[in-house]
Amino acid sequence: MEILGKSSGREIRRALDFVVPGLLLPVVALADPASASLALRELSFEELANITVTTVSKREEQYFKAAAAVHVITGEDIRRSGALMLPEVLRLSPGVEVGQINSRSYAVAMRGFNGTASNKLLPLVDGRSLYSQRFASTIWDIRDLPLEEVEQIELIGGPGGTTWGANAVNGVINIITKSARDTQGDLWVAGAGTYEEGFLYARHGFAAGQDGWARIYVKAFQRGDSEPVNVADNNDAWSQVRSGFRYDRASRDGGQTTVTGDAFYSDADQLSSGLPDVAHSSGGHLLARHLNTLAGGSQLRLQGYLDVIRRDSGGSLSQADVLDLDLSVATPSAQSTTYAWGANYRLSRLEDSVNSAGFVSDFMPVERWFNQGGFFVEATHQPVGSTYRLTAGTKAEYNDFTAWELMPSVRGAWMPNQDTTFWAAWSRAARIPSRFENDQSLTISTPGSLSRTLPSPDLEAEILNAFELGWRWRGPQGVYVDASVFQHNYTRLVTNHTLPIVTPVEDDHNLENLGHGTSRGAEVQVVWRPQTWWQWQAVYTYLEQSFAVAPGSTDTALVQVATVSPLHQFSLRSSWNIGASWELDAWFRSVAKLPQPGRLIPGYQTLDLRLGKQLGHGWEISLTGQNLLEDSHMEFRFFTVRAAVARGFYLRIERRH
Amino acid sequence: MRNPNSSMLRPAAVRPAGAGLARCWWVAWTLLLAAPLATQAGSTVMLAAATPAVVTEYEVKAAYLLRFTRYIEWPAASFASPVSPIVIGVLGRNPFGDALERTVRGMKSQGRDVTVRLLGGIKEAGGCHMVFIGRGQERDEAAWLAVLRNQPVVTITDSADGLARGAILALFVEELPTGARVAFAASLPAAQAAGVQLSAAMLPSARKVIRAEPEQKGHP
After folding, report:
1. Domain extent for B75
2. Which A positions 546-575 lie with beta carbon below 8 A of chain B?
3. A4, closest residue in chain B (CA to CA)
4. In 3D, which of B193, B198, B188, B210 has the Cα closest to residue B68?
5. Partner B contacted by A298 (CB < 8 A)
6. Residue A287 CB burial class (10 angstroms; 0-12, 13-18, ≥19)
7. Of B43, B134, B180, the CB nearest to A9
8. Of the given ranges (A92-106, A556-570, B16-30, B134-148), which has the lowest mean pLDDT?
9. Does the N-terminal or the C-terminal CB of chain A have fewer CB atoms within 10 Å?
10. For B207, which residue in chain A has the nearest alpha carbon?
């Protein structure tokens, strides 16, 4: 959580931008800060030097006392990691599984159910969902963003449905970009390497009117082919250009306005039915948010965004347009019982036409207008001066596929002293069906056989009941320990259903909710800073899963879900500042095997090294080596795609002025 | 395309069980939501045993900044008029929240008001009498300090390392067995280069004072 040279110091105002009601908000009411400041200003230097202080910022305090498995990756952590792609950065946190499938695709999940269709993880950027209602997953390659602009990433393990609604089942990834106020001036980045073949990023930050700041950026990169395993050439190199902006205004009356936008275009080489092909993607977003304090001290948050994606891949065209509106109000945090409530509405337009050799996919309707929206209410009780906090709330959300879903949670935290937090939580989450599950008729024909997957409009939401316990402790010498355990009980998991045989060569099936299962796990993070210039971080993740289907179900795929997540993951990272201008970072990772029958991915150990040097006058140069311990290794497999990640090096030059 | 058999596919036993479970959740949740409200009556007892107030690092640092304004002499030309305020700029990230604003509000120093200005960049630092640079910006800090070196601006960094980069004052946290405290250090050569005078009365309180230019290596 802590990083070199920046252990604290965040604007409390900014903390309110993305505050998770219930998880984080109530802790704002820690002490009476006004009286402290007033009393201090009459003290002499000697008296000031004798006051014992806490060096933890209010925002860090919120994370420390949160009754949820929250882990934070800061912008500085990202810079020191040497990772250039968003999914790779997520490996810094416990509880996350990241498997690179090929050059472009990643399987990313929290607490299991990994795959390209990792449908129980909800990622957001500045409150904008990256989750695809089209096929219930996140397409990470088209959601790239300049990592230089990331303020921090919050990873919240377990259900987040009370706040974020449907599909926040196993975890939420909250990516928060820097305020335009913090990115004033110019930044240029250029780099080249063996696998990360070339990348450019340029940013210009400037004052924009009274109390306003803005930045504009452009980012472009080209990434090479992954290592082939079963074919001569994976043909999966890709490139992307993205440009965007952010505007922030803090008006004198305390109101804050943020507007963000971007547009991108991407070309990706791929194999379509074994033949070289190029997939094209494009899209963008526009988001506006306003925060203000209402009469009476309540905090109002209003947000709206538009998100547009176009994709043309191997003859399949898809369009996804999303309009999302969100309103929430939190009562003043100074009171012992606070309330938060809100409403949201999302309209998606999903249009697909899929047609390629060997399989035909029909969508009914071809153009789907999908409504989703609801309400949440949450109450938090923390008497002034008490050592405990209780939060209970629920979201009730409607969607066109399964109608109303209820996502309640109850959380409690006990803080026996300044340096210890114990917490416990029960929560319920729902994963609603995707358009692929609800609307699609997929026909795969080979000579002599025909396989059809029919639409399943009667699918219900998959349900999770989660029980979690956690402990955080901070000790001397920058020691920080965060440990949590959980049990997830799943019901109504989607399973395959074989339909009665029509003709001997045709095999028809659809989907039903006959699966259930349990997962248990532990997530541990230890940070130790023996010196101000040296920090260690160790992360361990344990996950065991078991699934079964109800009697009568013909499904054989669900039980295999347990075999595509590693039982153990461990990583150790050292960040070392050598003198005033050198930085040396080492990051070791060990991931256990994925024991899928017939498709085993062996466990692997690997190491990244980064050497950085500040050259003065805003120049920085760094050399990064990735996956150094072996020539290549496989991380994840998707159907016939078998690609490996090879050792790679790149050089990066940065100029700030 | 609808599957004509779909209504037959769902075993009848599943739905009632699920519905029953849903009712249980509702009851449990309602009870738990009510629990904090029920404990409200008992909470007044807890109020008496309030934990001691926590003072944050930046509340103390804000108090230091205010105190510094009383021990520094700026050239008269750096003020537009005898009643112009002393302006404290916070360069880059603002680690104070509103603690610095609250600390200086309504306070006078050397007969002048004290005001706070949040600076988006070094270009906005003109007109400030003191500039504070928060932690986590070390890469920019050296460049900013170089720009301000010969201006009548008291630069204050958020770690002891800042003096080596050319700052005039540094506020830093000392980790002691009894807890963390905030102390300061001063550089007289840097103050001299800027043309500001640090009062001799504040120097005994400094944890460290640099009094002479470090010897230039490679120059006889």
Report:
1. 13-210
2. 550, 552
3. B136
4. B198
5. no
6. buried
7. B134
8. B16-30
9. C
10. A49
Lowest mean pLDDT among A261-265, A424-428, B44-48, B189-193: B44-48
Quote the pLDDT of residue A31.
38
- Cβ–Cβ gap B143/A617 under 8 Å: yes
With the CA atoms of A53, A54, A57 and A60 taken in that order, what torsion angle do they form, in degrees rounded to the nearest 10? 180
Instruction: With beta carbons less than 8 A apart as the criterion, state whether A73 and A91 touch.
Output: no
- The answer, yes or no, to whether residue B52 has pLDDT greater than 70, is no
Mean pLDDT of the region A386-392:
94
CATH number where A194 lies:
2.40.170.20
Domain-embedded: residue B67: yes
Interchain CB distance below 8 Å, B36 and A392: yes
pTM: predicted TM-score of the whole model, two decimal places: 0.81
| A36: enclosing H helix or E strand | helix A33-40
- pLDDT at residue B50 is higher than 50: no
Q: Residue B72 belongs to a domain with what CATH number?
A: 3.40.50.2300
Selecting from A43, A76, A418 the residue whose C-beta is nearest the C-beta of B63 gives A43
Domain count, chain B: 1
Q: Which residues contact B45 (CB under 8 A, 6 or more apart)?
A: none
The whole-number average pLDDT for the span A130-140 is: 92
Place of tokens 């002599």: A448
The parent domain of residue A194 ranges over: 9-656
Considering only residues 235 to 264 of chain A, which have any Cβ-Cβ distance to chain B shorter than 8 Å?
Answer: none
How many domains are contained in chain A?
1
pLDDT band with cut points at 50, 70 and 90 for residue A274 = confident
DSSP E strand boundaries for A130-232: 150-157, 171-177, 185-193, 198-207, 212-223, 227-228
Query: Sorting pLDDT into bands at 50, 70 and 90, what band is A307?
Result: very high
Is residue A2 a part of any domain in this protein?
no
Domain for residue B146, yes or no?
yes
> Mutation test of the interface with chain A: which of B43, B115, B118, choosing the one with the most A Cβ atoms within 10 A?
B43
- In a domain? residue B220: no
pLDDT band at B10 (very low <50, low <70, confident <90, very high): very low
Residues of B in contact with A510 (CB under 8 A): 3, 6, 9
Nearest CA in chain A to B43: A383
State which H helix or E strand residue A572 sits in.
Answer: strand A568-578
| Separation in Å, CA of A528 to nearest CA in chain B | 15
Instruction: Read off φ and ψ for residue B58, nearest 5 degrees.
Output: -80, -20
Instruction: Select the residue from A16, A38, A41, A414 to test the B interface by mutation, using most B Cβ atoms within 10 A.
Output: A41
Residue A56 has pLDDT above 50, yes or no: yes
Say what the pLDDT of residue B215 is. 54
Question: Which residues in A lie closer than 8 A to residue B21 (C-beta atoms)?
Answer: 491
> Is B43 a domain residue?
yes
